[in-house]
Fold each of these.
Amino acid sequence: MGAGKNLTREYQQLREKIYQSIFAGLNKQQMEVVATGEGPVLCLAGAGSGKTMAMIYRILHLYLFGAEFEAAVLPPHEISLEDLAKMQQWLQEWEKGVVSCFSPEIINLLRVNGVSPQAILAITFTNKAAEEMKTRLANLLGTISEKMWVMTFHAACVRILHREISSLGYTSNFAIYDSQDQLVLLRAICKELNLDEKKFAPKKIQNAISRYKCKLQTPSKAKIMSNDFLEKKYIEVYEIYQRRLQENNALDFDDLIMLTVRLFQEEPEILEKYQERFRYIMVDEYQDTNHAQYALVNTLAKKYQNLCVVGDDDQSIYGFRAADIRNILDFERDYPEARVIKLEQNYRSTQLILDAANEVIAHNSGRKAKKLWTENSAGEPILCFTAIDEGDEAAFVVEKIEELKGQGVNYGDCAVLMRTNAQSRTLEEWLIRIGIPYKLIGGVKFYERKEIKDILAYLKFLVNPCDALSLKRIINEPRRGIGEITFSKIANHSWEKGIPIYQALLEYENLGIVGKTAKAVADFINLLESFRQSLEKLTVTELTKKILEETGYWQQLKRENSPEAESRIENLQEFLTKTLEYDHFAEENSLGDFLSQVALVTDLDNLQEKEEAVVVMTMHSAKGLEFPHVFLIGLEEGIFPHYRAFDDLHELEEERRLCYVAMTRAKERLYLVNARERYLYGRKNMNQSSRFLEEVPPQLCIQYNRPGFFETTPAYAVGNNAAGSVAVKEQAGRKGQIFMLGDKVFHQKWGEGVIVSIKGQGSEIELAIAFPEEGIKTVLAKYAPLKKLR
DNA sequence: ATCTTACCGATTTTT
DNA sequence: TCGGTAAGAT
C-alpha cells in the first residue's frame, strides 16, 4: 500500500513536470488564456501575437487536464512503474522534439479531469482558419480531435440545422443559396413587382436584406422599424424573397445563422440540448461577429458561461458587412466577471514594422488600449517609394521582387496588397511581362463559374425537388427548347397549388404545354427520373459523370472547340476530382452532404503555402496571413482611404484599421508605394499621398530613389514564365533590367535615348529607342548593350 | 432564341 | 477604361 502511495506521488510530480513542459513555449498571457478554462474570457490578441497557438493549447488543456489544472490528482487507473517509465520517456522525447503528439497511450496516462471532446466548440470565420486549427489539433491528439467541433459559424449552423430544421418548416435536404442565387431570385421578384432596377438595384436590396438578417429582423419586425419609402419597398421585397426561399426549401448564408438563433429561441429543449453539449465555447475573430452571430454564441454560452472570445478590435475591418465592433468592445459589460487577457507580444514582425503600425493605429479613437511589442530585432527600415504613375508603381514592385529573388528570396515570400481589386491590372501586366509567377486571389471563384453552377444546379435539384431556382437554371441548359414562358407556367402552377416545383413539372400536361415543347419537357422529365433512380446507387462522381454525359453537356462543350469551352471542360474535370475526393472520404454516399460542404467553400481555402508565386490580393483577403516581404500599393487619398469613406469618421477609422492589418502582415520588410498620378475609370487623376503614409513616422522609413545606373551589362529581358526566367538568369548569372516606356537608356554605340515602344514578351521583347542623332532603332532587349538611366 | 449595341457605373467580402 | 446588363433587331 505504501508503495502505491509513493507511486501516486511520483505520478503527480511527473505529470506536473510534463504539464509544465507541454506549455513551456507559451508566454505568461498566452498561458493565462490556456489555463482559464472556466468562465468568460476575453482575449485581446494583437496581430501576430500567437492567438491560434493559444487557442489550440487551450483546447488541448481542456481535453487533457480539464478547465483548471490540478496537481494533486489520483491517476486515471492503477499506475505501474512501467507506466511511469513510459511517461518519463515521453517527456524526454517531447523535450527533445522527437515526438510532438500525444499517443492514445500517453493520453490514457495523463488525462485526469479532462473535458469530453464533444463538449468543445471552436468557431472561426473562414474555412482556412478552421482547417488550420483542425490539422494542428489532429497532429497533437490524433483522431480524438475529430469529436470536437472546430468549424466556421456557417458550417456549425448547417450541422445543427441539418438535424433540427424540421421544427422551422423546412426539410433537412435544404439548398444553400449563394450570393449569385440570391441576386437571380431578387431580380425575378423586382420584375414581378415592376420595380425600376435603377432605383431599386438588386445589389442594394440584397445588402439591405442581409443587414436585416444580421440584425435578426424578420420582414414583419423590420416593417415596424421602417419609415421611409425606399426602406418599405425593400422590406416588401424581403418578405416575398423570404417566402420564396421557404417554398424552395432553401436558405441563404445569413439564414443559416438567423434560423439557428430562431431555433434556439423557439425550441428551449433543443437549445438546452446544445447548451449541455457545448460546455466550452471558443470564438475566433470575435471583432468580426455580427449581431446574429453574437446572439448565437451568447445564447449557447448562457448556461455555463464558459466562453472564450479571441479578437482584436484594431483588426475589425468588416463593418460593411454588418460586423459589429461593439460585440468585442462590450464583452466586459456582457460578462462583468470576465477575465480580460491581452496578448501584446508579437512574434511576427520586426520592431520597426510594429512601431510604424502602432503609430498609424494610434490615430484611431475608442480602442482598447493595447501596444504591440516584440523581442525581434529592429529590422530593416520601411521602404517608401513615390512612383510617377501606376505603371511606374508596378515597375518598382517588379524590380524589387526581382532584386529580392536575386538575393535568394522566394517569390512565395512576397505579397502585394492593394485596396481594390481593380488595382491589380497594371501590376499583372508587369508580372507577366517580366515572367514572375504570381497568384491573384479574388476574381471569379471556382464555385461561381457558370459550368460549375450548372452541374451543381442539377445535383441540387435532384436532392431538393422544391428548388425552383436550380430547376430554372437547368431546364434549358443545355438548350432543349424549353423557354421562359414554359418555365413560368410551371412555376405559377407550383405557387398556386403550393406544391414542390418538381411536382408541378410532372403535371405539365395540365398547363397548356403542347406540341414540341411538351415533347421536350417529357424528355427532360425522363432524364431527371433516370438520374433520380440512380441517386442511391451511384457515387457523387458517377452521378455527375452520368449527368454530364446524358444531358449532352460534355458534348456541347467539346463540340464548341473554343478556348473558353476548353477551360470549362478543365473546370468540370477539376470538379470531378473534388467529387472523387469526397467519395473517397465520405462515410456514406450522401449527395446532400456533399452539396452543403461545397456551398461553404471558397477559393481562399486553396491558397497553398510554399507555392512559388508572388501573391497579389486585397488587404482584406490578407487578414490572417503573413509574408516576409509585403508591398502596399496605391497609398493615395481616394484610393486608400477610399473616397467613399471620406465623409464618415467610422468608415475612416475602419480604413485605418485596414491599414494596420495590412502593415502587420509583414515579417521582415514592408514597402509602401504611392503614385503621383493614376488612371482611374478612364481619367488621369493626381492623387495626394495617403494620410496613412503621413502617419508613419519618417524616421522609420527610407525614401527610395532609383539608382542612376543599373550595374548590369549587357541588358536582357527575362523570360515569360517561371521556368524560363529562372533558367535564363541562372545561366547568365546576372541581374535583369526592367524597361518601361519613357525610360532613358544608354546604348553602347548610339548613346543616350528614350524608349518609345515595347513589344513582345519574354526573351523576345523588342525595344524601340529614339536616339537624338540616330533616329529610332529597334533592338532585342535580350541582346542590346543597354544601361538604364534615370 | 440569340446576337448586337448602347448605356451605366465603378470598395472592401466570408460563408 | 472596361465590363456587365438591358433593350432592340434579326
Note: The first strand of chain A starts at residue 41 and ends at 45.
Amino acid sequence: MELDDTDREILRILQEDARTPFSEVARRIDMSSATVHDRVSRMEEAGVLTGYRAEVDPKALGYGVSAFVGLRVRQGHEEEALETLRAVEGVREVHLTTGEYDVMMRVYAESTDDLRDLMFGQIATMDGFDRSQTMVILGTDYEESGVPI
Amino acid sequence: MELDDTDREILRILQEDARTPFSEVARRIDMSSATVHDRVSRMEEAGVLTGYRAEVDPKALGYGVSAFVGLRVRQGHEEEALETLRAVEGVREVHLTTGEYDVMMRVYAESTDDLRDLMFGQIATMDGFDRSQTMVILGTDYEESGVPI
DNA sequence: AGTGAAAGGCCACCGTC
DNA sequence: GACGGTGGCCTTTCACT
C-alpha cells in the first residue's frame, strides 16, 4: 500500500495519542472526519495500522525488573527452544538475531528473585539451552515509542 | 496507587485495544461507564496509564531493518555518548544495562546501507565510543505488547 | 478520494447516594 | 466509589461530486 503525506500525518497523530477523536485529527489535517475515517480503515485493512495499545507503567503492576536476555541455542533444537520460551510468563518478546546470540528476549520480572526463577528455573533447564547472558535494565535513557514518521 | 481487580481488568482491555469505547468496557466489566471513566482518569493521573499508542507496521514506512545494538562506552564519557545517541535518527530506545554492554539500543533502519551509515557514520565515530555489537533482527518469533496483567 | 448531512452512540460532567 | 441522566460531541454511513 502506498502512503501519502496525509496518511503519514494521521499515523503520526495516532501514534502520539491513539484516542485522539477522528474529528480532532480531521481538524488538524484540515479534512473532513469522514476522510480520516476512510483512510484509517484502509490503513487498518492494509495492515499498516496494526492496533491501538494503552501504555501501562510496569512498576504499577509490580514488575520492577526488566531485562534483555541473549540466548544461544543448541543446533537442531531451535524449534523446541522457541516453543518453551513463548510459554514462559514474563517473556514479552523473542527475536531471532545475528551476532553473538541466536535469540534476543525482553523479559519482565517482579523482582530479582523472580528473575532468578525465570532464568535458572525455566530457561537454563530447557531443551536446547546452550548459554545465556542477562542484561538487566538499570534505567532507560531514551524511549520513543513506535516508528519514526 | 493501589489497583484492584476491576482496575486490572480495565487495563487489560485497553492494552488490547486502546480505542475500546468506555461504554463497551463498562459492559464487559459490568459497571457503569461513569465508573470506568472515573477509574481511567484516576489511573492516568497516578501515572499507571501513561498513554495510548497506535501500532504501525515499520515495513509500511520503509523501515525494513531492525536491530539491537550493544555498546560499550569509555569511562567518564557516558553523558556525552547518551546525548549523541538520543539524537541519532533511527535510534528508538537507549537503555543502561548490566552485563556485557553498558548501553543496549533498539534501532530502525531503512536498509542495511542505512544501518551501516548509522553505525559507522554516527555511532562508531562519536565521543566516548569504545566498541559495539549489532544484532540484526532476522525475525520476531513472539511479541506480546505491554505488561502481563 | 473527498465531502456534508444525519442518526445513533459515546464522552464527560453533573448531582446524588 | 458507584450511579443515572444529560447536553454536546463524535462516529459511521451514504448519496453526491
Note: The longest helix of chain A spans residues 33-45.
